[in-house]
Amino acid sequence: MGRLFLLLLVALGAGFYFPESRAILVERLQPALNPGYRWASGGEMKQIVRDLQEWERVGRGLPVGRGEFEPWLRNRYQMLESTMDSWGTTYRLEVRGRVVRVISAGPDRTFGTPDDMVETGELPPERRRR
Q1: Res. 61: pLDDT tops 90
Q2: Which residue, among 9, 20, 34, 26, has the nearest Cα to 86 in the 3D structure?
Q3: pTM here?
Q4: Residue 81 sits in a domain of what CATH number?
Q5: Is 5 part of any domain?
């Protein structure tokens, strides 16, 4: 049993080494990988919400204008992978009143479908200006 597992592990490693076979393997293994992808993206989304809350707390304006959120993500997170969900789609931001929502398109890479992931956070109360 141990040898069979080792052989399978070596075969998978070799398959992922070559770009042509990597794409095929990822496509076939996608259903098995999705729970891990959801967990990873959920963690990133929680961090983005915390960072947005802190950004607002210190008095900086939220990146809510057209085309502001993606540059904010790129400037905030040095690794390009941290600006996208596990399936390669850039996160979206919605702000409604004092609530922020970071949205992932999910495995189908299409926003507005049932597999979307949403992380919600409440912004701190507005500071009074003196």
Answers
A1: no
A2: 34
A3: 0.76
A4: 3.30.700
A5: no
